[in-house]
Amino acid sequence: MRKKWASFVLVIAFIMAFSVLSACGSNDEKSSDQPKQESTASADGTGKSDETPSATTEAADPFGKYAETLTVKEVLGYGPPEDPKTPSGLTPDQNAYIKDLKDKLNIDLKYMWTVPSDQYEQKFSLTVASGDLPDIMDVDIRNFEKFKSQGVLADLTEAYEKYASPTLRKFMESDGGQAMKSLSQDGKLYGIPGFEEPFLSTQIMWIRSDWLKNVNMEAPKTIDELEKVAEAFTSGDPDKNGKKDTYGLAISKAIISWGFDTRGLFNGHNSYPGGWIKGSDGKLAAGEIQPETKTALERLQGWYKKGILDKEFALKDDNKVVEDIVGSKVGIVYGEWWYSNWPLNLNRDKDANADWIAVQIPGIDGKPGKSLVPRVRMGHIVTVNSKFSNPEAAIKMINFYIDKNSKAYYDTNKPENGYVYNWFVPRIYNPVEMETIYTEVNKALESKQDQVSEDVPYFINVQKPLDAAKKFLAGDKSGWGLYMSRVSPDGGWGVTRKIRDNKDYVYNEFYGTATETMVEKGAQLDKMLGETFTKIVMGAPISEFDKFVDSWKALGGDDITNEVNDWYQKNAVK
Amino acid sequence: MVYKASLGRKVFTFVNVLFLVAITLLGILPFVHLLSVSLSSNVAAMAAEVKLWPVGFTFEAYHYLGKKVEFLRSLGVSVERVVLGTIINMVLTVLAAYPLSKSNEQFRFRTLYVWFFAITMFFGGGLIPTYIVIKETALLNSIWALILPGALNVWNMVMLLNFFRNIPKDMEEAATIDGASQWSILWRIYLPVSLPALATILLFMMVGHWNSWFDGILYMNSPEKYPLQSYLSTLVTSINKKAISLDDLNALENVSEKTLRTAQIFLGALPIMLVYPFLQKYFIKGITVGSVKE
Amino acid sequence: MKGNAIQRRKMRWEFPFHMMLLPGVLVTLVYAYGPMFGIVMAFQKFDPVLSFWKSKFVGWKNFRYIFHLPEFNQVLWNTVLISVLKIGFGLLVPLLLALLLNELTKNGLKRIVQTSIFLPFFLSWTVLGGVLLELFMLKGPINSLLSGVGVEPIMFMGDGNWFRAIIVGSDVWKGMGYNMIIFLAAIVGINSSLYEAAEVDGAGKWKQMIHITLPGMAPIIILMATLSLGNILNAGFDQILILYNPIVYEHADVIDTFVYRLGIFSQQYAPAAAIGLFKSAISLGLVGFSYFLAYRFSNYRIF
């Protein structure tokens, strides 16, 4: 027995010795690495003096070519090329954008790695932890804040001032410079915001108009009307096949999610779960614990009982809900402006009778519903590693990408020529792109032109809907998805912008990064919400809601509320 | 072998066959379903109308796949990985299992070694440190990153050593007296009589290499080096967040067709399934251990 | 003097053993022990930017955080219950199948059965999840069958107990081919002369199974049982994540899904590492315990 222990101890000693060794080993590696990096940095630092003159001479040129090849290291969250016309077997390194970048700016873009987008965050943190950051990084707001506080990010103020192309400037000024200001600290700009119009998140309702006709009803304006329509869709045989095989409203097991969820219905009840709404006392309050939420839940409970909701909605993820929509099993779904281009178009492919229209969400008290809209919609931020010698390269690359998508390259910049847009970083889009598309395309349609204005940024994105709209209006059904989402006044964006102009929305006032208690307790609160709400809808006593509110507050909700209000005091755009 | 079956025996055999056939169906049906989906039209697949027979029959998915370089390329990587990985696994496992199957008297350090290996079944450093070690040993982005870290699977080794122990000792003793070295005892006596066990772990190793996808994604830096299963995992877009960006939307609107995805999943499982029948005879026919005296 | 000579002979005798182990030891040392420095993460307030060298040490705080989460006990209980059922049935069913399959006399049928039992192992839970959901829907085939014999439709996936049963059942089904092969290999490894002798003694098939086959398989059965104990806190991550839903959280949330939610919500690496360490310690304890039990009572070393 003693011998066994002895060997056991030996093993442990072995392990410890080795771990220490390996730690030292990698430390050594680090220290031998560091000077190298510093030396390149200092070389660039000294080099800067003789490089800056040349840089200043070309300071005015946002597209100035480097005299010596500049290598830029990046990482890429990768999705397969989306266009089936992309040459088979193309790899991200062979992306035509990268070749052009080398030709035009003499920048050699090297991907340290590419990884499927699902795994991006994980691999990115592996890279960060193993100590080699890329030169130019496209990060989310959470990593941005973290990096900023660790001093990892380069100051881009000067680079932006000198090198930003007119189009990029126009993009950044489209919101009055708000987004950029939110990324600045002490007058230093730490990132180029990839922001979008917040109204893209507006909840609207999509409804089968052919079914409406079949049951002789109008598109609902209030929740009560909606209930009647949904009942008719459930038991009035809206598809006229003589079978009771349809139901009213499609929702998935995720109560609050990115789509096919119940946000729109809650919003119609003036309830805003997941949002922080300014109360009459000027303080922010969480939407999920307000009495309006209870009313909405009661309504959903009634609908579940009547069969308006799928009996098994709680088991279905978004894929399953999409199957029901495509399979003509359901006639109403809450969501955003883009549904017509996916998945409603698939339903039309499947079922020749199918037709969908977009309407503002129904509300209570005879008024239309007001959707929750974020104050800021910032998906990603382009940042530069402070150790990188040429921060202006990031700005130039953004210029390059925007320029590559202008009218001038319309004929060459095509997937079949090896241009894969989602394999190029950094990309900054036109923040008001949807509005640009809408107005430009409608203008062209009115004046019967075949082309949208030449100088519009991201020409392809605007021209494509115009082509689709022309096709659709000429009787070709395949253009419906794009036309209905982006062009039609009664389509997704058409309805959304009306809501925007009528100010029929409510702002989610909190847009900071997760607070300390959110990080610690958020996952549990989320789970509790999903669990309680689902059970209530499926028939649990409504008093469960009050219990939920109490536990929510006790289990961290109150702390979160305080933290959010502290944040609001300091940061909010009032 | 003449054997008179009793009535009870006949009934048992009948029920047994019936039961096993039912189990067989349970195993096959999912594949029939997959095959049917891959041979259906995309809208029928998206509307979940396909059960066990194609709806709107078409070969389009397979036709398209035939031209898809990505699929074939990653298939090549997978084959390379399985061949290299299995050989190395096998050598290391056999070499480690043999000495450890000896008794403590025959090999004094046995217990020390065994626990040295066993500990790793329970404790691991986690993702980040493993990544760092792989990076520091310069394996990143090379196929060795998928092979070396798991080159000795302790679980398989422990299983093999248990099989080795069951080998009757008299042959070995005779050989030792004749002056045979340990290497030749392993090679000439242990391996030939352990074919069923070797076939078992061989199959596990191959399947393990074939099925694993996550390491490919972590350690390979570009998609052209992905093995098949890693590549297949890139085809499924799952959106796991609360708001959807315009880029996500583009991905959704153009997401690869369900039938195409299914066809690739189906084809991805085929090659390894074909390996199995070749190994099967070792599980069915016993190896007669010769010259064993009771 | 003589002792030394013996010692030296012994060393020479053992030398090839060390050589054989060398490659395995090296690989294990580098790739299994090498990363273990990462265990410190469980005791840190880990931040990728600071990595292991500079992240702050916080002692047992991560463990306290995890153990004090209000749902932890429920989650732990779910995990243990589901995995014990999985381990139990996951051993019993393949064992039974291997024995039954061994009774088949037609080799062709034997091969077909064997191959198809193994097939589900090749499908990922992502693929199987959709199929399973479809099977157990209110209007799915299982409920149709049941209504044929007059049973009211059951919402299987929405009922905690049924859900657990499906989780366990489908896992056993998916993995049974794998374990069955090990058992088959064990059966095949039994010296066939034993059966011949038994037949001469007039023992029937049943008696042969009880007295020859099972005892012959015993070491492998014990080995598999012991090693699976190490999985007692792994109830299956992908499977549950794909199949579960808010109604059955209470019955189906297990350690791994729980950690995953913490992770996606807030990138909490350190608590996840703490849970990992906790799991490792429990597994080692259980396996170690049964190792010594087996050694103590039957003088058999599992490994």
CATH superfamily of the largest domain in chain B: MetI-like
Helix content of chain B: 55-70%
Give start-end ranges of low-pLDDT stretches of chain A: 14-58
Distance between the termini of chain B: 22 Å
Distance between the termini of chain A: 74 Å
Number of strands of chain B: 0
Secondary-structure element order of chain B, as H and E?
Answer: HHHHHHHHHHHHHHH
State the CATH topology of the largest domain in chain A: D-Maltodextrin-Binding Protein, domain 2
- Share of β-strand residues of chain B: under 5%
Q: What is the C-alpha radius of gyration of chain A, as a whole number of Å?
A: 27 Å
Strand content of chain A: 5-15%
The level 1 CATH classification of the largest domain in chain A is Alpha Beta
Domain tally of chain A = 3
What kind of sheet is the major sheet of chain B? none
The number of E-state strands of chain A comes to 15
Compute the number of helices of chain B: 15
Biased composition (Basic and acidic residues) (chain A): 27-36
Signal peptide (chain A): 1-22
Protein name (chain A): Extracellular solute-binding protein
Keywords (chain A): Signal
Task: Describe what this molecule looks like in 3D.
Chain A: This is Extracellular solute-binding protein. Chain A: InterPro entries: Bact_solute-bd_prot1. The complex is a heterotrimer of chains A (574), B (294) and C (303). Chain A is built from 20 helices and 15 strands. Chain A is of the alpha/beta class and 574 residues long. Chain A has 3 domains: 187 residues, D-Maltodextrin-Binding Protein, domain 2 (3-Layer(aba) Sandwich); 215 residues, D-Maltodextrin-Binding Protein, domain 2 (3-Layer(aba) Sandwich), CATH 3.40.190.10; 67 residues, no CATH class. About 8% of the residues of chain A have low confidence. By secondary structure, chain B is mostly helical. In chain B, 68% of the residues lie in helices and 0% in strands. Chain C has 2 domains: 58 residues, no CATH class; 239 residues, MetI-like fold (Orthogonal Bundle), CATH 1.10.3720. Chain C contains 14 helices and 2 strands. Chain C has 303 residues and is mostly helical. A two-stranded antiparallel ribbon of chain C has the order 1-2. Chain C is flat, with a radius of gyration of 25 Å. Helix content of chain C is 74%, strand content 1%. The chains are: A alpha/beta (574), B mainly alpha (294), C mainly alpha (303). Chains in contact: A-B, A-C, B-C. Chains B and C meet through helix 1, helix 4, helix 5, helix 6 and helix 8 of B and helix 1, helix 4, helix 5, helix 6 and helix 8 of C.
